[in-house]
Specification:
Elements (H helix, E strand, L loop, with lengths): L4 E3 L9 E3 L9 H11 L3 E4 L3 H7 L1 H8 L6 E4 L11
Parallel strand pairs: 3-4
Antiparallel strand pairs: 1-2
Helix pairs in contact: 2-3
């Protein structure tokens, strides 16, 4: 099973972009961390509000709240089936 889907970026943009669901939701949190490490992913952009992360992936929420993530996380929370507030 492919956990991370790579997206082809324009030649003018350096780097690699992967799409993935919330770490620890469809696979174990440890599997997510392993795959992140293998791919060399250092930054995760999270679109999920923290209250939803707490319900769907408690281990991931604990790591966020204890500031123990092994990657940097940038949060842009958007509620399911909603649009950004700004």
């Amino acid at each position: 099973m492919q956990m991370f889907r790579s997206i082809e970026l324009p030649v003018s943009i350096k780097g690699i972009l992967y799409l993935h669901r919330m770490p620890g939701y469809y696979e174990s949190y440890e599997q997510s961390l392993s795959e992140l490490s293998e791919k060399g992913i250092r930054t995760v952009i999270s679109l999920t509000p923290l209250d939803e992360i707490r319900r769907r992936s408690p281990e991931y929420a604990k790591a966020i709240e204890s500031d123990s993530l092994p990657f940097s996380r940038i949060s842009f929370p958007i509620r399911d089936f909603d649009v950004p507030e700004d």
